[in-house]
Amino acid sequence: MRAPSLNPVSQMKFPGQRKSKHYFPVDRRDPMIQPLASPEGQPPYVVGIDQTLVDIEAHVDDAFLARYGLSKGHSLLVSDDTAEAIYQAILAGQLVESEFAGGTVANTLHNYSVLSDSRSILLGVMSEQIGVGSYAYRYLCSTSSRVDLNHLQPVQGPIGRCFTFVTQDGDRSFGISPGAMNRLSHQYIPESVINGAAALVISAYLVRGEEGDTMKASAMKAVSLAKAAGVPVVLTLGTRHVIEADPAWWQAFIAEYVTVLAMNEEEGAVLTGQQDPLAAAAKALEWADLVLCTAGPLGLFMAGYTDEAFKRETSHPLLPGCIPEFNRFEFSRPMRRTDCQAPLAVFSHISPYMGGPHKIKNTNGAGDGALSAVLHDMAANCFHRTSVPNSAKHVAPFLSYSSFAQLCKYANRVSYEVLCQSSPRLSRGLPEREDSLEEAYWER
Ligand SMILES: Nc1ncnc2c1ncn2[C@@H]1O[C@H](COP(=O)(O)OP(=O)(O)OP(=O)(O)O)[C@@H](O)[C@H]1O
Ligand SMILES: O=c1[nH]cnc2c1ncn2[C@@H]1O[C@H](CO)[C@@H](O)[C@H]1O
Fold it and tell me: Which residues form the Carbohydrate kinase PfkB domain (predicted)?
């Protein structure tokens, strides 16, 4: 097992220059501003709850998916018998490409920690007895040492398995064999950990359990604590099937608890009834404060609120869409609707970075990557607020350090990196400076 504590980190890596203009002015200090935090001050952390599982990746054809009742592009639970049959089939065909820690929230935390070089905390279960080479062992081996696993709940039995099937078009479909992944007890949701976080990340998958599973109740405890403490709750929708089972329940849940909603256009369509990702993001603003809607080869959209008093007009070309010139105020920074005296809805969009990688082998985790970038920017804002509280950046309670437009750029860049590394978990962060960026892309 790992050492109980992590290396002390008193700094946090900031999102960095994603454009030549200062994305974060790390080397330009305003002499009038005194940083107040002591050098020992701890940077913020992000906490998340996930179903602990390992992705077992295999490349198969559509007929294979049909044979085992899987749904293309989605995540379905499979019975123990089906899991065993699948496992034998992929072993016999020597189809296993990799076995790697997965889980949509855990991927997001891992990537957050890689990008920020900073701490995140994962809540979930972990097998009490771990043999070398077991799934639990692989899980621990492929999680960043910046992800704090000290609060995991020990359980009897295996963690979950996520058969990750990549088809020829690069799309991914999941079959989940849950093991003990849904047994998280509310006693392993520490109030102090939730209350001190820059954000709490959960996924819609957490409610998908069987009779007797405790995960949903534990997640509900966490969101209630976060709400009471004013900690932003970040919900990622995970897969269409979970939402379409009861969209009205999700709408009410989001309205009650969620600050930041992340979804792809399919999930957005079942939640809101709007096929168009921009329209879906706009509709979701009825319930959430900030929305990230990824749309595969179309890039991604963000929607949110800013106060009329702080709106900033873009210098980019105005874009057409179901909301004409929707990006007009994309240089504004997001705020909670209730923090705005006169809330103004703001939208932004970006096309895939460099048009997307030359060849995409696997799109698994591209959306999780985008969300980890948004979390990094939100946590950087918390860090800056405690370090330089009298900065003009904090005249209002903004949710992120950067504007909608910059958030889109950063999220999109991280998705591209996930696609290039062909893995939902980044093994390295982004370059400090993107020398090629200006000429190659932003200045185009
Ligand atoms: N085919 C593609 N070409 C170019 N860029 C892509 C492509 N697919 C995905 N991307 C990039 O990745 C981002 C996220 O993709 P996508 O909408 O597929 O995420 P997702 O379905 O939520 O993924 P996951 O659930 O596996 O994390 C997009 O906004 C885009 O920047
Ligand atoms: O039921 C689930 N719970 C948690 N994570 C899941 C589930 N199904 C799939 N993924 C995870 O989603 C990631 C890509 O977004 C994959 O890495 C996979 O592990």
Answer: 100-303
* Structural contact between residues 177 and 163, judged by C-beta atoms closer than 8 angstroms: yes
Output the domain CATH number for residue 313. Answer: 3.40.1190.20
Is 317 within the bounds of a domain?
yes
Return the amino acid letter for 170.
Answer: G
Of 6-10, 21-25, 399-403, minimum mean pLDDT range:
21-25
* Cα dihedral: 272, 296, 112, 344 (round 10): -40
Quickly tell me which residue has 């070309």 as its tokens: 317
Residues lining ligand 2, judged by CB closer than 6 Å?
50-51, 53, 55, 75, 102-104, 107, 162, 174, 176, 203, 205, 364-365, 368, 424
At residue 151, the 3 state secondary structure works out as: coil
- 16 pLDDT band (50/70/90 cuts)? low
Domain that holds residue 421: 46-52+102-159+180-442
Place of tokens 């034998």: 88
pTM of the model as a whole: 0.92
Q: Look at the block and give the residue holding tokens 């790697």.
A: 100
